[in-house]
Amino acid sequence: MIRLVRRVEMPVPTLAGWGVVVVILLSVSVVFIGTVHPFLAVDQPLGSGSLVVEGWMSRKEVLDTITLFESEGYDRIYTTGGPIPQGSYLALLYPNHKTHAEIAANQFRQAGVTEDRVVAAPRGLVVSHRTYFSALALRLKLVADGLVGRQIDILTAGTHARRSRLLYQAALEDVAKVGVKAIPPTSYDPDRWWTSSSGVRTVIGETIAYCYAKFLFYPNIERDIAQLELAQN
Length: 233
Prior knowledge:
The chain is an alpha/beta fold.
């Protein structure tokens, strides 16, 4: 006779055991809530060299960097970012610019930063790993201009900082030393991010994105540059 099921013994936690499990989960949750935001929003600038501004940030965030740029004595600003979606409000506002990098550079020039101190490093249309490919576009620009060995500080929004630094370091290996400056968020309180829907979406999303970039993303500089150059043509 063929038997389709069989009886097995399986240990299960006692009431005290479940209590220990609950305490462990609560402890991990408390530690995560208290440490994840400062971990992601790392602020470790080198304080010299060039400033790299991610052009997808808001106009206010972009222009607020001028004070930092002038006070810290950076020699120039590089703006990065990819194509503007067709039909978006940015395409209507800036019909002569095709990328976020170009728009950010234009905003700096309109605010009074001289032409020779603002350099746009736009990337082509890629469907994934946009921050990494933006960093590769900057790599191509630095190499083309004979500026290998630079120090750069990436200026980016809050919890995006640690992931930006990780991906820029990967893309700029042997070309530039990378620091990062995180802009504090304005849509939620970073010390109580879990009390705001904006804070929860931002922190949880960036936590997942950082873990993916750290543990599941395997860049290949030569292959990826070839892909980027194809996208830019």
